[in-house]
Design brief:
Multidrug-efflux Transporter Regulator, Chain: A, Domain 2; three-stranded antiparallel β-sheet; 4 helices; mainly alpha; single chain
């Protein structure tokens, strides 16, 4: 798994702007970014791939939100803290 920075996330998802991705995060339709430095964030590639697959499959906003919740829960399960 890799961590994708914003330009790669935009390219992978088709979003045209930072704002559209952060709007999707606020709406619960995209996972929150993870810190990768003091002033930088990214998204786990497997999460971006899962969200893209759900969108391609025609999942509803409710189903996407449920997926995002599951992906966030998986982060906690796999944390080493």
């Amino acid at each position: 798994m890799s961590i994708l920075r914003m330009p790669a996330v935009k390219a992978e998802t088709g979003h045209r702007s930072h704002a559209s991705i952060y709007n999707a995060v606020r709406e619960g339709l995209f996972t929150k970014p993870v810190a990768i430095g003091e002033r930088s964030v990214g998204w786990p590639s497997r999460e971006v791939e899962a969200i893209n697959a759900a969108r391609i499959a025609g999942r509803t906003k409710t189903e996407l939100a449920e997926l995002v919740n599951r992906l966030h829960a998986q982060r906690l399960e796999h944390s080493f803290a």
